[in-house]
Amino acid sequence: MSSALKGKRILLGITGSIAAYKAAMLARLFIKAGAEVQVLMTAAAADFIAPLTLSTLSKRPVYSEVSSESGWHNHVELGLWADAMVIAPATANTLAKMAHGMCDNILTACYLSARCPVFFAPAMDLDMWRHPATQANVRQLEQFGHRLIPPASGELASGLHGEGRMAEPESILEFLEKSLQAANQDLSGINLLITAGPTFEAIDPVRFIGNRSSGKMGVAIANAAAARGADVTLILGPSQERPDSRVRLIRVESALEMHAEALKRWPDSQAAILSAAVADYRPAEAATEKIKKSQDSLSIQLVKNPDIAADLGKQKVNGQMLVGFALETHDAEAQAKQKLERKNFDFIVLNTLTDPGAGFHHDTNKITIFFRDNKRLDFQLKSKQEVAADILDALASILARG
Ligand code: PMT
Predict the structure, then answer these.
(1) Which residues are identified as catalytic?
(2) 7: pLDDT confidence band, cut at 50, 70 and 90?
(3) Residue 21 belongs to a domain
(4) HSE-up of residue 320 (Cα within 13 Å, Cβ side)
(5) Ligand 1 center from residue 96 Cα (angstroms)
């Protein structure tokens, strides 16, 4: 099968990390897949790998300065030339510059000029990777619409063990191929409704009943669907996550608000993906004033919330597709299959809290998809961005069959 990289022009940005030696293999894989590769290196990267190695492999001069004896390297032209820019390895320093628009070398100058999709594969020590400043920069870059190729876990150059190793060149190639295939706009013209995040059910003006959903899974689906051409409306409960600007965002707090927004928008949608963790119950009455701790115990009467999924399922007409999630702790498969039937889903995405790295809050998830014809698809633990792509592949293939 021909690679999605065939005929593509790739700017490969290499920064100063020990993982820079792997960039030679990456350049070779891109070229073997049929891409043209222009290498950009920071000065620090040249301490780790010789530009000559990369110019020999790419059969093009390597640019490591904005100008050299051969003249000024036009970063604006290079930025426009590229079909994709891949920064691998991406150090904490370069990520910070990118997130804040700093531009003091050929790589960051090309990055600011690039109109193409940008991918970045971080490489650093585990504490640098975990640092809130690095994590904030990564989130910022994702909000710009750039794609994180998540680092792997393992032994690091420092001798420490943990997350921070650059993804292997083969995984970076696979990630890029999938993403560029996805750029085929196979969801173009589809109105897609997505619910995501938790709901908060007010007890009084200060307190609420909530749950541990971060919104990451649903926001990843929304961003990926918008990149594939869908017209996406995201109904998002209280969450720190921000979808990219192509997504129409509706903020809600409670299950009742999410229910009302979803029902209003469902008739105009071809498909809905319900990833929200909706509270099943809410306090029968929310106190208008802060409840004082005057008693030793306190009972709060709860009433059932409407089931958004079941209500959309009841109103589903021919040609509409409804995709649900199931978050389980036990009897996972049986529970998921029951929900598939009961809520009239076309397929259901099961994630279980017993799988390490799956479910709430993680940047990763591990899913199984169950279809109505008893078919199932099992997936490995992956980043939520990759999981989003797998779910949308399933949706797109059913939509394509009509
Ligand atoms: O947000 P993250 O931190 O990234 O975590 C992602 C996630 C774990 C929340 C997500 O992957 C997930 O599993 N979402 C569904 C959680 C859930 O509430 O599952 P459930 O089995 O209780 O509900 C089944 C389905 O019915 C879901 O599609 C749910 O959105 C929907 N539902 C449930 C209750 C209700 N009142 N209305 C609904 O629409």
Answers:
(1) 211
(2) confident
(3) yes
(4) 18
(5) 34
CA distances from 344 to 208, 278, 309, 350 (A): 30, 17, 8, 15
In angstroms, what is the span from residue 40 Cα to ligand 1's centroid? Answer: 43
Tell me the residue range of the domain where 15 lies. Answer: 9-181
Whether pLDDT at 228 is above 90? no
Does the Cβ of 326 fall within 6 Å of ligand 1? yes
The DSSP-derived string for 352-385 is: ETTSTT-SSS-SEE--EEEETTS-EEE--SEEHH
Answer whether 88 contacts ligand 1 (Cβ < 6 A): no
**Integer angstrom CA distances of residue 45 from 59, 64, 75, 373:** 19, 9, 18, 52
Q: Whose CA is nearest to atom 23 of ligand 1?
A: 326
State whether the beta carbon of 349 lies less than 6 angstroms from ligand 1.
Answer: no
Q: Give the model's confidence band at 76: pLDDT under 50 very low, under 70 low, under 90 confident, else very high.
A: confident
101-121, pLDDT tens digit by residue?
Answer: 999 999 999 999 887 889 999
The CATH number assigned to the domain holding 360 equals 3.40.50.10300
Average pLDDT score over residue span 167-181: 92
**Any idea of the CA torsion for 243, 247, 253, 255, to the nearest 10 degrees?**
-120
